[in-house]
Design brief:
This protein is mainly alpha-helical. Helix content is 69%, strand content 0%. The protein has helices spanning 20-63, 74-115. Helix 1 packs antiparallel against helix 2 (74-115). The chain is rod-shaped, with a radius of gyration of 24 Å. The two termini are 29 Å apart.
């Protein structure tokens, strides 16, 4: 099955400055960078969800604090707070890492736009 060209065909054909083989390779590079960016965005979504989980649990504990005595359940509260702190740190790490990757992918795309000016209109 032949591969379709990812950009709409223009009446003039492919850009004159890039031969067909080179154009295909550049388009595959761009697709690879965009796939990396999608992966980083999913990592960001996961990090936000992991970060929000301890906050939800702690707000539930505060809302129901009149139903228990903290001194009687102190070992469980300490364990829960330790797990919540670890999940919060993991969430922050994932978000920071994802943002770094997203900025890196954006820099690669900007570099490709500058280097291959004929493809710049397609890389908005």
């Amino acid at each position: 099955m032949p591969l379709r060209h990812p950009f709409p065909a223009s009446p003039e054909g492919p850009p004159a400055s890039l031969p067909d083989a080179r154009l295909g390779m550049v388009i595959r590079e761009i697709e690879l960078v965009l796939a990396e960016k999608r992966t980083a965005l999913s990592l960001l979504r996961t990090g936000i969800a992991i970060f929000a989980l301890p906050l939800s649990v702690l707000s539930l504990l505060i809302a129901t604090s009149h139903l228990y005595e903290a001194a009687r359940v102190l070992p469980m509260l300490v364990a829960l707070l330790a797990i919540s702190a670890a999940l919060t740190l993991l969430g922050i790490f994932l978000v920071v890492r994802a943002l770094h990757r997203i900025h890196s992918c954006d820099a690669k795309i900007r570099s490709m736009k500058a280097h291959y000016r004929d493809l710049a209109p397609y890389l908005e």
